[in-house]
Amino acid sequence: MSTHSETVSSIYQQIVDRNPGENEFHQALYEVLETLSPVLEKQPEYAKNKIIERLCEPERQIIFRVPWEDDNGEIQINRGYRIGFNSALGPYKGGLRFHPSVKIGTMKFLAFEQTFKNALTGLPIGSGKGGSDFDPKGKSDNEVMRFCQSFMTALYRHLGENTDVPAGDIGVGSREIGYLFGQYKRITQRYESGVITGKSPQWGGTWIRHKATGYGAVFFCEEMVRAVHNEELKDKVAVVSGSGNVATYAMEKLRVIGAKVIACSDSSGVIIDRNGIDVDTVIHIKEVERARIKTYLDFHHDAEYIDGGNIWDIPCDIALPCATQNELQQADAITLVKNGCIAVCEGANMPSTPDAIKVFQQEGIAFGPGKAANAGGVASSALEMQHNATHGSGFEYSEERLHEIMNHIHRDCCDTAEEFGEPHNYVLGANIAGFRRVANAMLAFGII
Ligand code: GLU
């Protein structure tokens, strides 16, 4: 072991000891730290100034009570979180997740990932994440509104367009963003559009934001498949896990490019449609009916539904995990390889386990990690902030701008991987390229 990898291992151990039980945070940390020793070797100023140790400690962590009243008049209590992880490159920026699985370790892993992701966009955004263990599933519109109002009542004092700018994530879409922004505006008496992103284009949002994470993941995948395999996505068979915002627009863009998406999923099961998944039906089910994906069968009688099925068992050329963390494990990776899959591109945050990633890397599968491949969402959020800073008179950014940003991120990861002697190792490329950008800003600011 080189001294640098010993340094990194001991930093990892210290952080694990300081944050007991936060398994997802440990995993995200491990995946990044594992790749950083070569950059410590090349640029000793990072180790000397304890940049890794500083970067792994969130700048601030806010935890608060969220009481609200359900439709039966009963009081419910949830826990709210907002982590400001790093502000070296701009205000804290990252989404809010409302899901029963949310814990402090979930928030920290997401905020930590966001640090590298946001840096890779090249835009002036720091990193943060927040959310709650509230489950919007099965709640009435009024219940969701009351919850969002209570959440914002506790959080608003910590936000600001130059301080901390939330957006959506799992369980937080344009409906929730509307309620959150409405309450912020009501409490502060300020129409500060840039305090939250993912807004409706009717009141300060941009139309591309809604589609940007999914579209961006496909743009990244397209470049990666060209670079690694010298092939095109056209006519490839794809499977996309999930059926939320990221999965939906990834499927839409894949269809436009000429790939055939034959399966998608939700936490209950998998839909297979050999004619190609009809994205408009998925949007209708998820955004209008707010129902389970098996409802797809009511619209397409020749599709198939596998209750509790595993989407990674379906043979495909391209796999896009767009649901949630750790949804693709080692056994799934082995199945994908066996079935001839050539590329895996992550639309979700940390959907592949470290063991699964090792399988892809050993087998020469092109693998795009989420912090690079799904950065299109937050990049469009940064563009929305720029648009808001001009009070709406500025240029509204287009899909071409998103495409340019994704191509730029892809190139940056590729060049960095090559610089460190590991061509096509996008994990290493993304981690080092993102790290360097944040680290250089932190060095410039002195000991803060
Ligand atoms: N939640 C998204 C992500 O994981 C987007 C965050 C944002 O737009 O601020 O990157």
Automatic annotation (TrEMBL):
Coiled coil: none annotated. Transmembrane segments: none annotated. The lineage of its organism: Bacteria, Pseudomonadati, Pseudomonadota, Gammaproteobacteria, Thiotrichales. It catalyses: L-glutamate + NADP(+) + H2O = 2-oxoglutarate + NH4(+) + NADPH + H(+). Homohexamer. The keyword Nucleotide-binding applies. Residues 206-446 form the Glutamate/phenylalanine/leucine/valine/L-tryptophan dehydrogenase C-terminal domain. It holds the Pfam family ELFV_dehydrog. PANTHER family: NADP-SPECIFIC GLUTAMATE DEHYDROGENASE 1-RELATED (PTHR43571). InterPro entries: Aminoacid_DH-like_N_sf, Glu/Leu/Phe/Val/Trp_DH, Glu/Leu/Phe/Val/Trp_DH_C, Glu/Leu/Phe/Val/Trp_DH_dimer, Glu_DH, Glu_Leu_Phe_Val_DH, NAD(P)-bd_dom_sf. GO terms for cellular component: cytosol. NAD(+) binds at residues 213, 245. Substrate binds at residues 93, 114, 117, 168, 381. This is Glutamate dehydrogenase.
